Amino acid sequence: MSSIPGDLRYTKNHEWVRLGADGNVTMGITDHAQELMGEIVMVELPLAGQDLRAGQSAGVLEAVKTAEDFYAPVDGKVVAANEALESDPGLVNRDCYGEGWLITIHPSNPSQFEGLLDAGQYKELAGE
Amino acid sequence: MDKQTPLYSRHVALGAHIEPFGGYLMPIRYGSVIDEHLVVRKGVGIFDLSHMGEFRVKGAGALEFLDGLLTNNADIPVGKAFYSAMCYPDAGIVDDLIVYRLGDDEFLMVVNAANIDKDWAWVMSHTGSFDVRITNESDQTALVAIQGPKSQELAALLTTVDLDSVGFYALARGTVAGRQAIISRTGYTGEDGFEFYISAEDAPSVWDAAMKAGEPLGITPVGLAARDTLRLEVGYVLYGNDIDHSTSPLEARMGWAVKLSSDKDFVGRDVLRRQKEDGVSRLLVGLTVEGKGVIRHGTELFQVDRRIGVVTSGSMAPSLNVVVGLGYVEKACSKAGTKIEAELRGRRIPVTITRTPFYTAGSRRQ
After folding, report:
1. pLDDT at B218 over 80
2. How many angstroms separate the Cα of B7 from the Cα of each of A33, B200, B238?
3. Domain that includes residue B300, residue range
4. Which residues of A lie inside 8 Å of B (Cβ-Cβ)?
């Protein structure tokens, strides 16, 4: 059974989303997702400054055998991408909710965050 | 409905990620694909390959029958095996397979799981007036492989057969963990290794005995994901990815297994002869990614603005820590060292045509 922290929001694409004190949101993939994918060997991140719409592909996670896009959880501008993943993509597996974060977005429509799944709803979706 | 192999419950108990493959529920990986891959390169891994199909061909006409169906020469010594393609009249590939000569008039064809029904229909439609009896023993036969430089050390704990007398692509009959088996020195990893053909009901006890005996050697069960990266690193083709009805064995650089110079006649020969004389227009090549990105089946290949080919297999290569692949390119671009590009999500990344095998330090015997 995978870990699903109660203080985060989630998407149907198995991403977690954290609201920071500055109003920006940081996202990554869930423990369930990293376990399903196996070892991440490469991460393709968006550039800072890029505008994304909720549900738009923000980048790609490459596992040994498969590739999966990850998607912007809300509309907004990318303010940071986790550059540590360039040299150590395995951080996504080892610490998906911490050092393995993917991007931070400055939301253009902050109310979208409240529309994301809570831990209980995600748990149900993940079948756990 | 996907079938289970006789070892399905073992895979479940080991916590394997199980997915359908070739009509069977197969272990894709038990834990880390990279660890499973590296264990086979350095120690010994165990594989359940019971999804593979087995057809037994017996009778006074067996040799002649197979020689007419297969691109390679079937007249090999008893106790040896050969790799071959089986072609359509248009030289497209029905399947690639290993054939064991069990006796003067007895052979075992080992075919890809996904092709069992198609191959069976194809083989049976060519029996004509040959004196052969062919049986599909796929459901009654299990296949357990051990692969890696420590395979022989492990096999010696499981059988009294003199393994040194079993050369590469040769077989012996004997017992493994007390069960009747065909023991062959074959594999799909580039490493030394053995494959044990046993009856389905004996599979769990052979698997358990190998896992127990192999414990001090660090034996690890290996799933199909690592099997795929292992074969890719040594440039072996996979049916359905790199070869199929739309590719010829000459395009796939399997010419060494296509006997055109003798008077052997076989399905596809005329078209293959013409291809050999005229030359094929595309060739399967090794690909090494120089930039950042993972090429996959279907990734398109370019030279400047011209599309010159397509990737048929691609993955990070765990032993080499680079991304490699196989693909077809125009013959003019197929020379090792040629610089081309792959298009990944609208972006071009540099790729170099590379001689295979990519990984050359394997323990496979010659």
Report:
1. yes
2. 27, 9, 23
3. 281-354
4. 36, 38-39, 41-42, 44, 60, 62-65, 67
